[in-house]
Amino acid sequence: MKKQLLILFILITSVSAKAQSYLGYFHDNYAGVQSVLFNPASIADSRFKTDINIFSVSGSVQNDLYGVKVFDTYKKGYDFDSESKMFPKNANNALVNVDVMGPSFMFNIAPKHTIAVFTRARSITNAKKINGYLVDQVKDGLDEASDFNFNLGNPNGSSNAWGELGISYAAVLYQNNQHFLKGGLTAKYLQGGANAYVQGKDVSVRYVENTANPQLGVLQSSGEITVGGSQDWENNEDYDFDSASRGFGFDFGLVYEWRPDYDQYDLRNAKPADNNFRDLNKYKLRFGLSVTDIGSMNYKNSKLDTYNVNGIVTQQMIDDADNLYDFLNDHYTKVSTSKGVKTNLPTAIHADADWNMYNKFYLNLNGDISMVSANKINLYGIADRVTLTPRYESRWFSFYVPVTYMQYSGMQVGTGLRTGVFFIGSGSILSNLVSKESKGADFHIGMKIPVYEKQFKDTDGDGIIDKEDACKKVAGPKENNGCPWPDTDGDKVFDKDDACPDVKGPKENKGCPWKDSDGDTLLDNVDACPAVAGPVENKGCPWPDTDGDGVLDKDDACPNVAGLAVNKGCPDLDADKDGVLDKEDDCPLVAGPADNKGCPKVTKETLAQLKVEAKSIFFNTGKATLDGAKMGETSGRLDAIKEILKNYPNAKFAINGHTDNVGNPKANQKLSEARAKAVMDLLIEKGVNPANLTSKGYGASKPVKTNKTALGRAENRRTEIVYLGNL
């Protein structure tokens, strides 16, 4: 008897529902504007220029009382009561949700900033703590039930339908090498539609049948039931829409991406065709965290009735009732109020981790946690869940298989796909195909117009994208709109730079052939004196005689001072004033005695100074490289040695290297030779004549101190400069 069953259900609770939308689809990088509903930060740095939702809808039904073979319920003659399997307990729950997204869009307003605007209609019905044993007892009607006595406790149910107009803003907050963070915020205008709720307090029911006369069976109840709604449902048979029932809400979220290959997407290396890599997913791991549906709406014309249901009614009273309100008003005490009621949104926390396993294959783990208390009246929440979703995604196609543990209905497996403008899926279809005891079902479907970010074409590879290239198949400079410059005479000088475009000539002469202006057989490009004839040997210039001594500069050893031809154009000179004429002086610029051919003699003091300077050249341990920590001192010592040696241009010096006896003798020998040569090479670099120097290594063969002490070994590790005689 449907009337009896309806009345009994109202006395204890109402049917309840709560669920998620678009299960398995939200986390696709090409979900576009739909993803803003889960986490507003997701639309920043997206793969879209813009994404326009035409229409999409998601629905879900779940419970923990009835198990059915879902696809049998569509068969003609299916009897839900007899063919379903019940799982009663003291607190059963059922879940239903409808989420419709109307015309909506998102687009990038700058490289790091994105906005979205969406319209949405939602309906959520929540009921909790339904005594499933009582439902099982009276599913065929009170007059078919035997005696029962149940304590129902505090059942709670509510239903709400409303519309949303939302605007979301998301931006890149931080970007540093492999670390990438973005955030987003959504503000929503809420328009209330219809709201109804019921809550029991310490409710118990007892039914005593009368086998002789079923109409005299009695239903005894106790406790308190509160029934409320967005308007006076008792006196209004038709629904009256109240435009003043409105409110505000918001969502916020963060998304972090780990991009270990960030150097591949360095914008400094991007070519115009790369379009700044906007079409690519750059992360290896992505983590998202968001809080949605913070806010409420106010139903200003709400009516609330509280019934004290302590009493007894008969089966006949139930059958005689025309409607629910008449029955409650006729048999129970009521307290009524009419005032505005604030209805909260189903606030929830969402978290997900997305792993790019390989190429276009991903694995997503996400979960939802309701932040709404199950005990408060007229409050709405989602079902807690955890979902693991492997997926394949590309620009025009995605395929995903969500595996979900859902509060109340348990495990379910589904699948879905996206093909450009169309997407469809279900988080439970696969499990419903095989299970005979499914406790939940859901679906989502939609159509959209995606406009993707993509690489630009550059067919000829000249760095100018095809849409801006006047010659798409032939490389050319940007200055000529991507077309090559012409070269009429084929001399590899473009006509724009060729002073003689019809005659071949070198680039150095602006595309014109070279002339021989002075007729000396040398073309002007190689003639140092193009206007005056001269010999080839002097690059086309006449030989000069600067000092006028009859000896041409090319043969004159003293071109600026008149001299004798027999003296190569130089006068007899004694430049260093040492009494030895320069022509007989081996050191004409340094004074020295005649018995040493005008060169200074190396003194004991000089050798002693060289010994001091050479002793303070420091090397890295075991190497022939200079000690960086003492580089300043060593460089100063080398400069001092150079200044000493340049005073003896005809003297021969040896650079000798010595080591201590620690280590392999052969290695010590090679090290001493390398260090001696290193010092010689450094002196040559500083300007010492190579002819004045030789180098030799002696290893540990010539110690100056004992090798038994650290101090002695330090003295033995040395370089020395030894005078060998004159050249």
TrEMBL record:
This protein's species is Flavobacterium panici
InterPro entries registered for this protein in UniProt: Bact_OuterMem_StrucFunc (IPR050330), DUF5723 (IPR043781), OMP_bac (IPR006664), OmpA-like (IPR006665), OMPA-like_CS (IPR006690), OmpA-like_sf (IPR036737), Thrombospondin_3-like_rpt (IPR003367), TSP_type-3_rpt (IPR028974)
Name the record gives this protein: Peptidoglycan-associated lipoprotein
Q: PANTHER family given for it?
A: LIPOPROTEIN YIAD-RELATED, STATOR ELEMENT OF FLAGELLAR MOTOR COMPLEX
Biological process terms from the Gene Ontology for this record are: cell adhesion
| UniProt superkingdom | Bacteria
- The residues forming the signal peptide are 1-19
Which Gene3D superfamilies does the protein's record reference? OmpA-like domain, TSP type-3 repeat
Show the SUPFAM superfamilies listed in the entry.
OmpA-like, TSP type-3 repeat
Claim: ATP-binding is one of the keywords in the record: no
Origin organism lineage? Bacteria, Pseudomonadati, Bacteroidota, Flavobacteriia, Flavobacteriales
Task: Please name the CDD domains in this protein's record.
Answer: OmpA_C-like
A cellular component term, taken from the record's GO annotations: cell outer membrane
